[in-house]
């Protein structure tokens, strides 16, 4: 597959008759939650089949981005410092990078698509970029379309990126864009007096130390698919008859993945292993299981405790650094899960129908897992798992051997 870049340009916000917004609010201060997040670009790809309704041309897609950036202004900004010298997003409307490319083959010739280095040609490189978001639209010889978004994680999480993509698709189709207001730092002010009720060392913060390496073994990324039958089987194993509440599909799949990854790594029963799950603070969860007992603790009280801890000066005094470290390429013996299940990533429609496939870009970090709802919409779940090549075959074998796995 050969990808040829046809054009690359900055697309800036296009405001309505009212003109540009007041520059009174010219910065968005990074919150304490932003500062402990991954300072790296996260890529997502949307694959669209050719439809009777032809995919929109470049000009229409650009116009849609411009209209969306007028509402989601943070993506058109740049990182900098506010008037107090604190890290912030400067709302300077410099725009996002928009790349249009073509592929010399039909999309079907590279199916099924796997998260390999070949994917790198389908999304724009962030090497040396100062843009907070970069977009690439690749048109294949068969008429299929791949839309790739490369956005900095400090600006938004998966939910926020999905909100932008849905708004862009709506604007491209001529549908109104919902109001949007990125959470500001005023929401995350520490309490007085502070109440640090939970331990945040080892969770959001860690001691600074050298990162582990793979000893020369290559990290590979593989996609695994959990059909609705497999999900149901896992739920049945985790929720015996008479259980007060069934275990959710996400928790069952995550538990199974954790067990299989530990087995593939060859961990013995004496090696402690930790599962870290990125929790959406917008919602509350209330299910008592092994994983759920930890997830349920991440409620309003937990977030308030974290804000107090991060603002107390302890981090600086003890020399702690964010646990979300994009330079750490090996997580073994731990596992880190990022879930987009329940987030409508598959509802993005630029006028040629919904994507037949959604996936993350190539991010080879050992022990990192992404899970999403399958594009089929039937309740099945897809997972992208990164492990050392020597462990991947063992993982894939036990991953599909569900019966009796618990």
TrEMBL record:
InterPro entries listed in its UniProt record: CAT-like_dom_sf (IPR023213), Plant_Fungal_Acyltransferase (IPR050317)
Keyword terms: Acyltransferase, Transferase
Pfam families, sorted: Transferase
Keyword Iron-sulfur among record annotations: no
Molecular function terms from GO: acyltransferase activity, transferring groups other than amino-acyl groups
Gene3D superfamilies: Chloramphenicol acetyltransferase-like domain (3.30.559.10)
Family the UniProt entry places it in: Belongs to the plant acyltransferase family.
Protein name as catalogued: Uncharacterized protein
Organism: Digitaria exilis
